[in-house]
Design brief:
This protein has about 350 residues and is α+β, with helices and mostly antiparallel strands. It folds into two domains: about 160 residues, no CATH class; about 120 residues, SH3 type barrels (Roll). It is built from nine helices and 16 strands. Strands 8-7-4-1-9 form a five-stranded antiparallel β-sheet, with no helix packed on it. A four-stranded antiparallel β-sheet has the order 15-14-11-16, with no helix packed on it. Strands 5-6-10 form a three-stranded antiparallel β-sheet, with no helix packed on it. The longest helix has 23 residues. The chain is globular, with a radius of gyration of 21 Å.
Length: about 350
């Protein structure tokens, strides 16, 4: 596909960041879905029904995403956006607490014009199309696996089907869409492009250069390198929602992760190091999440913490708009007393 054909294609989003849209009714959305409850291989999930008829602003244009299933890099997504304040509550998926930012196909939305009023919320599909009343719940809970364990299907588990086309780092079209859609400003665009170039040089240097010629041992920008040999340490602060914490300095956190940058199976990466030293409020404790690769609902032996307003900004990852909520080990945090929290 040529550059010009691309910009005439449907990959160019029609919606922009900040634009007010209305989520269509359940009946209208169901009419766009196939027998698996999907549009273009992207599931419409039961958790999304609560937003039908509401007016929300476009938070990010979801023209690309990072592959967290098979680590193939960035991928193209077509005709989709993320809406402000719409994250999955996991109610139809075993209480998964990952709180992914939902993907909304443009066919499920309509731009709001002056004078438009929100429709009444529609929390059930049964009243609209009895033949499809259970399609969403059936899709969310497909047949159990060979071991008899329940498996789940959601937007996160199906993203490789919904976004099958890989995106090259030097494919400049993604950056044009980033800027034109309002996802990022010029500074953020240039910053992430620089980091991407540098990190590719670092990866190459680890393969071809002797260690004494490498920059910081070939580490990616952000310089996260685990130092623990053997079992990693843990800590229990029993943090509760509403408490204020400070994310420890990176130099302290790397002393708690191994060479794979894991602490008891939980990763700490450059995107998280970006927030080191900042303060935030605890939103909740997390002990359940769906494994995107298998669809299994995992129970964490060591609960993690989600912090208010702390998201993956894609700084080192091509400005990916998914905005994951990072999971924080309590050993990476320190509780603030009331006097510190008030400052």
């Amino acid at each position: 596909m040529s550059q010009w054909n691309f910009f005439r294609s449907r990959k160019v989003p029609r919606l922009r960041v900040g634009q007010l849209v209305q989520v269509r009714s359940a009946a209208e959305i169901l009419a766009t879905l196939d027998e698996k409850g999907e549009l273009d291989n992207l599931p419409f999930m039961p958790e999304m029904l609560q937003f039908c008829g509401t007016q929300l602003k476009v938070h990010k244009v979801a023209h690309k995403l990072c592959d967290t299933i098979s680590a193939t890099g960035m991928r193209w997504m077509t005709d989709a956006v993320h809406l402000t304040g719409s994250r999955c509550d996991g109610s139809a998926h075993g209480g998964c607490q990952t709180a992914c930012s939902l993907y909304w196909k443009e066919a499920w939305l309509k731009p709001v014009t002056a004078g438009d009023k929100p429709s009444a919320k529609q929390g059930s599909v049964a009243a609209f199309d009895p033949s499809k009343a259970d399609v969403l719940n059936r899709a969310a809970r497909p047949a159990p696996g060979p071991d008899g364990e329940q498996r789940y299907s959601c937007q996160a588990t199906e993203l490789l089907r919904a976004a099958p086309e890989r995106m090259g780092f030097l494919d400049l079209r993604q950056y044009v869409v980033d800027y034109r859609s309002g996802n990022v400003g010029l500074y953020a665009l240039l910053r992430t492009f620089f980091y991407g170039l540098f990190n590719r040089f670092q990866s190459k240097s680890r393969r071809v250069l002797p260690e004494y010629l490498r920059i910081k041992r070939g580490l990616h920008w952000g310089w996260v390198e685990g130092t623990v040999v053997g079992r990693t340490p843990t800590a229990a602060l029993d943090l509760q929602p509403g408490e204020m914490v400070r994310i420890k300095p990176k130099e302290e956190i790397v002393k708690t992760i191994d060479s794979r940058r894991l602490n008891r199976g939980m990763g700490f990466e450059e995107e998280m190091a970006w927030h080191c030293g900042t303060t935030a409020r605890v939103v909740r404790r997390v002990d359940r999440c769906i494994d995107e690769r298998t669809g299994r609902l995992l129970s964490m032996q060591n609960p993690c913490i989600v912090l208010d307003g702390v998201v993956c900004e894609g700084v080192y990852n091509a400005n990916c708009p998914r905005e994951f909520l990072p999971f924080w080990r309590e050993i990476w945090l320190e509780r603030l007393d009331k006097s510190d929290a008030a400052q």
